[in-house]
Amino acid sequence: MDSGPESRLRLLIVGSGLPEPEVNQWILDANGRRVSRPDLMYREFCVAIEYEGEHHLVDANQWHSDINRDDRLRVMGWTVLRFTKMHLQPGSERASIERIRAAIRASQASSGHK
């Protein structure tokens, strides 16, 4: 984990009863090239979870890089969920967890996983 909010998001996920996500692990393309190292992910469901701190919003180069990264993952069949500090506010946490659950359910439905 690179930041406190990323750790908080992970603890929120685990505390909700979802399985422990992988942390900062590389996703490779079909040729073995590194595509992305999301903050959190469920590899078996192709769900990447990113916490976007303030610098992702104010640094144009970072924002550009994030968009390109997310597009590459989507082309590979991944769902990319992005969260900000607003998603971790009391009152928003339940909806944030439901977004993750919905992405996992959609992956299970499309791949036949149970």
TrEMBL record:
Residues 40-93 form the DUF559 domain. Gene3D superfamilies: VSR Endonuclease. It comes from the Bacteria. It holds the Pfam family DUF559. This is DUF559 domain-containing protein. It comes from Arthrobacter subterraneus. The lineage of its organism: Bacteria, Bacillati, Actinomycetota, Actinomycetes, Micrococcales.
